[in-house]
Amino acid sequence: MVDFSLWDILRNLLMALRWTVVLSLIAFIGGGLVGALLLFLRLRGGSAMGRAVGFYVQLFQGTPLLMQLFLAYFGIALFGIDVSAWTAASVALTLYTSAFLTEIWRGCVAAIPKGQWEASGSLALSFNEQMRHVILPQAVKIAIAPTVGFLVQVIKGTALASVIGFVELTKAGSMISNATFQPFVVFSCVALLYFVLCFPVSLYAKNLERKSHGRRA
């Protein structure tokens, strides 16, 4: 048993917290880029491409993130590729995030009244011009709040990366708990740090949603 003070526990957890933040940003930014591409393909690629993207979304939404992490970590290794916990966690969380963001953004585009498409089409605008000048500026306003809100789910989802050996906040908490035999104190600190990280994001998302409703009203 190692004698850790509360400050020692918090200091070590804060060091691990930075990797939770970094992994969350990688997953969110990477997932956003992939999600934007998938949304474009779903809207523009025809019925076959739309079904393929729809299957992709259902696959990642309908299977546990934990399983996706295991498949990324152990599955890629079957092809003779050495995969680190960093790489596997980044890939799995990016794909998981992209599926949800694609569906969130598709719903926001679908929320734009059909008349906006018809009006822009009557001006002989191409699909890309319609999206850039008419549809996306309106859809983005709707999408900001749920997109920021989903970031909270991404942050909490990084905790599952601990099962493949990625040392983020939850994994560090488990290691410190095993060393100190103070699980209640350690995981209370872990929960507090997740709250400190997620609560401002949740508050910001609610504020954006309230402003969005006010503008539409």
Average of pLDDT: 89
Enumerate how many helices there are, as a single number.
Answer: 8
Strand elements, count: 0
**Alpha-carbon distance between the two ends:** 60 Å
Uncertain runs with pLDDT below 50, 5 residues or more? Answer: none
How much strand content do the residues show?
A: under 5%
Order of helical and strand elements: HHHHHHHH
| Main sheet properties | none
Please compute the radius of gyration using only Cα atoms.
21 Å
Helix content: over 70%
Shape verdict: flat
Structural class, please? mainly alpha
Description:
It is a single chain. The chain is mostly helical and 217 residues long. Helices cover 82% and strands 0% of the residues. It contains eight helices and no strands. Helix 1 packs parallel to helix 8, helix 3 (65-75) packs across helix 4 (85-110) and helix 5 (114-122) runs antiparallel to helix 6 (127-157). The radius of gyration is 21 Å and the shape is flat. The mean pLDDT is 89.
